[in-house]
Amino acid sequence: MTPIFQTSTYVQSRPGEHKGYEYSRTHNPTRDALQSSLAALEGGKHGLCFSSGLAAIDAVVKLLNPGDEVISGNDLYGGTYRIFTKVFEKYGIKFHFVDMSDATEIEQYVNENTKLIWLETPTNPMMNIVDLKAVSDIAKKHKVLFGVDNTFATPYLQQPISLGADIVMHSVTKYLGGHSDVVMGALIVNDDQLAEDLVFIQNSCGATPGPQDCFLVLRGIKTLHIRMDRHCVNGKRVAEFLKTHPKVENIYWPGFEDHANHKIAKEQMRDFGGMISFTLKGDNQEESFDIMSKFHYFTCAESLGGVESLCNHPASMTHASIPREERIKIGLLDSLIRLSVGIEDADDLIDDLKQAMG
Ligand SMILES: Cc1ncc(COP(=O)(O)O)c(C=O)c1O
């Protein structure tokens, strides 16, 4: 097994004479092993780890300069929206939040200042699907960097670099770690210069993870394919159960044939994953809170992608930093519940939904 190099520094026989390692913010052998593993999983040349998913996104935006513009998907993890609008806007970077379900919509926002297109697919929490190949064609045509947050799909279900993305980002905290015991982020790229620029930011800004956490993620990755298969099987069972439930108004899961971009999901993903969102008839927030408090297996908590099922109320939890009027525009209603379907026995999960929802 990869040793945990629990050290901050490394012996140098004379100043500048060492075995490739000087200081652990810059390099650590356990982190190097994980970075190589993540690059291999995504079919990229370079992997970089960060102390959280948001630290990874932070590094990407730091590639830009004041006056640059970013075209971003309009359905995003709340923390991503927050770092874009509350941290980087004040440094003079402009963000356009765009519905990308039809990729051709993006082109009208491209101008000479556009430097980055950023998106999630499936999106958090509305489970929209964006056509990666179509967006990468637009990005290439206008020589704009194209970054994809691949957290929900994981490299097992979808590999954006093979479809033309320049940067793949992960909240490793989720499926890659897989056991809800690590907070970490990652970037994977092919281009050597882009990798060098990001490594410079990684080291200069210093948001790097420790070796113990890298070890845990290396262990998590060994079962990624098996866990994902089970997340997908259980996700399908749960989605199908909820679709016919009399209390459910809308259900969002890309595996349904009537999902707006089901065909694209089928083309660019191996399977549809275990993330599901749904709203209640009457859209009553209190009713969703009641349901969530009755769950036994779907524990109410932030985060997703662990082996144990979780439920979350995006409007008040993960996406609380998005103004209500913006949320409502994309269908993120007050009663919306997001489920991260785990790898438990599917019958137990269905029984749990039955008893909590009545
Ligand atoms: C899709 C997505 N991207 C990014 C993040 C941020 O990652 P982290 O919490 O590891 O900083 C999250 C966290 O929930 C997420 O769901």
Structure overview:
This protein is globular. The chain contains twelve helices and twelve strands. The protein has a seven-stranded mixed β-sheet with strand order 1-7-6-5-4-2-3, sandwiched between helices. Strands 8-9-12-11-10 form a five-stranded mixed β-sheet, covered by helices on one side. The chain is an alpha/beta fold and 358 residues long. The chain starts with 28 loop residues before the first helix and ends with a helix. 36% of the residues lie in helices and 16% in strands. The model has no long low-confidence stretch (mean pLDDT 97). α1 runs parallel beside α7 (211-221) and α2 runs parallel beside α3 (78-88). The structure holds pyridoxal-5'-phosphate. Pyridoxal-5'-phosphate binds next to α2 and α3.
Helices and strands, with pairings:
Blueprint: H1 29-42, E1 46-50, H2 53-61, E2 69-73, H3 78-88, E3 94-98, E4 114-120, H4 132-141, E5 145-149, H5 154-157, E6 167-171, E7 185-189, H6 192-205, H7 211-221, H8 224-243, E8 248-252, H9 262-268, E9 275-280, H10 285-294, E10 299-300, E11 310-312, H11 324-329, E12 337-340, H12 346-357
Parallel strand pairs: 2-3, 2-4, 4-5, 5-6, 10-11
Antiparallel strand pairs: 1-7, 6-7, 8-9, 9-12, 11-12
Helix pairs in contact: 1-7, 2-3, 8-12
Shape: globular
Order of helix and strand elements from N to C terminus: HEHEHEEHEHEEHHHEHEHEEHEH
Strand order of the largest sheet: 1-7-6-5-4-2-3
Biggest pleated sheet: 7 strands, mixed
Question: Termini, distance in Å?
Answer: 48 Å
